[in-house]
Amino acid sequence: MLDSIYTETKERMKKTVDAIVRELSAIRTGKASVHLLDGVKVEAYGTAMPLNQVGTIAAPEPRLLVITAFDKSVVGEIARAIQKADLGLNPAVDGTVVRLPVPPLNEERRKELVKRCKQIAEEGRIAIRNVRRAANEQIKKAQKDKAISKDQGADGHDEVQEFTDDYIKQIDVLVEKKEKEVMEV
């Protein structure tokens, strides 16, 4: 009984941390990263498609991203989608290639990005605590239904709290690392 609660709880907490990793990877630092464009959708062939499905993305230099379109007819749409995504990047079209110079961040923008990192982390912590609450409610219900003893229930609450502490610590480490990356000149 408790094992299934633990498994589900860990799984949900891990998904939360994975979502935070994805969100943080999309935050722009001073360096070019192909993950900057993860959320960009391109209008192509009558639907909105992820950018990586209409072209290859590469970072040949620390301050440059290059997108090579699979089909020359979508190059203009790729450039428009990047501008519409409001990433602070100005695409330059060159044949079937879109070049994206990544400008260095100014101090004010860095502080805004750090603030956003902290916001993402807090949202993650809240999500982890919500998963903890749901697990604790399942344990209480199992106790009430006499599926587990009071001692097992207490142990279950302790175990869930350990998971919570562990995953929140993972979030803190991720955000601290990202903040250092953003503040690096």
Record the SSE blueprint:
Layout: H1 2-25, E1 41-44, E2 47-50, E3 55-61, E4 64-69, H2 75-84, E5 92-94, E6 97-101, H3 107-144, H4 150-183
Helix pairs in contact: 1-3, 1-4, 3-4
Which keywords apply here?
single chain; 185 residues; alpha+beta; four-stranded antiparallel beta sheet; two-stranded antiparallel sheet; 6 strands; 16% strand; elongated
What does this molecule look like?
The protein has 185 residues and is α+β, with helices and mostly antiparallel strands. It has helices at 2-25, 75-84, 107-144, 150-183; strands spanning 41-44, 47-50, 55-61, 64-69, 92-94, 97-101. It has a four-stranded antiparallel β-sheet, covered by helices on one side. The chain starts with a helix and ends with a helix. The mean pLDDT is 90.
